[in-house]
Structures are given as structure tokens and as C-alpha cells.
Amino acid sequence: MANPVCLIAGAGPGTGGECARRFASGGYRVAMLARNKERLDALEAEIQGSRGYVCDVSDLDGLMATAECVRDEMGAPEVVVHNAVSGILEGGGAAKFLEDDPTRLERNFRVNTTSLLYLVRSTAPAMIEAGKGAIVVTGNTSATRGKPAFAYFAPTKAAQRILCESMARDLGPKGVHVAYVMIDAAIDTPRTRPIFAADKPDEDFCKPTAIAEEIFHVAHQDRSAWSFLVELRPDRETW
Q: Low-confidence residues of the chain, pLDDT below 50?
């Protein structure tokens, strides 16, 4: 039998790319969704059995068409990792609610929350039929608190977390594990370093490889002891 398929939405240079590597090393064929074709081509060349799909998840019709293409070309995913995110790095970073363009909230909501709904609606039926599967969503502490400078971001992450909880309660009894991995730290990538205090020591940042390892673990928990909300932070983080 062919190895199972893991679909990763948001296969960037940090968590998404490391998730692709970790699931591939764990015996999966990996379908990687991202907007950047050059990055996907590099990952595809590096990771055996992987395939890149250029996709902007905010284009919901395009996302559904891509999910169907993955099913046709690779098979129904047994694991889905939703790592697509909008709102922190785009347009110069975060902003207070009286600043920036208020339509940005809807753009962030579409990427962070609505695309999750559409992706799970597309992939969960096959998992239900098989009686197994895992859906893991990467989030952060904006899902539980609305700080002043995150007015266009935090509401979308809070909605994302609640949507995940609703999905988990619905799909769990059908054999499908849904989990929300909340990362309480800046993630150590070349893109985030200049924004989140480039002068901080390495120990203040969460390593993408460590996040990917935990996501892989959560996706393979025994069904008698499933996690829903998983919090990750460096030992130095104040919380």
C-alpha cells in the first residue's frame, strides 16, 4: 500500500517547511500548499515523495480545487496541517483598530479562519469514512487575548480556535482527531527575526523543528488520550 498523505497548508520557510520534512521522515507523502512556487520547488526537490501546489488559501474556490487535485493525484490526506496565517507580517506588522485599513480584518479572517473551514470540509469526509485521521491547526496566544496592537489579527485567531473546538467535538466521536497547537513565542525564522527583536538570544525563540516534532506527535496520539489545546513556549517565555 502507498504511504499515507499529509497535506500542509502554508508550507513556508519555518513551521510549514519543517512539518513537511518531519512528516516525510515519518513515512508520509506530503502535499505542500503555498503561494511561492520557488519555495515549493525547492522543498519538492529536497523532500522525497512530496509535491508542491501553488495555492493562495484566501482564494476559496482555488483552495477547494487544489484540495481536489491533491486527492486525485496523491490520495485522500490522512493528516491535514493548517499553518496558513495572515495578519502579523503583512503590511508592516500589527496595528491598532484606529490604524491601517479596516478591510484588512476580513482578509486575515479569510486566511486564518474561513480557509480552515473550507479545507476541513473538503478533507474530513474521507477521514470520517476511514474512521481515522488528524487535523492540526497552528495558532498563537492572540487566540485568547486581544492586545491593543493586534486588533486586525486576534479576532481571527480567536475565531479559528473556536472553530477548531467545534470541529473537534463533532469529528472526535467519528475517529478524527482535531487539535489546536498554540505557540506562545516568536518563531525563529529569517523573516520573523527582524520584526520580533532581532537582538534577542536564540533561546527566546521557538524552533520550527521543535514545533514540527510536537505537531507530528499530536497527530499520532493514542485515541484514548487525545489533546485538543496544546501550548508551546520556550522555557524563558513570560506567561
A: 91-92
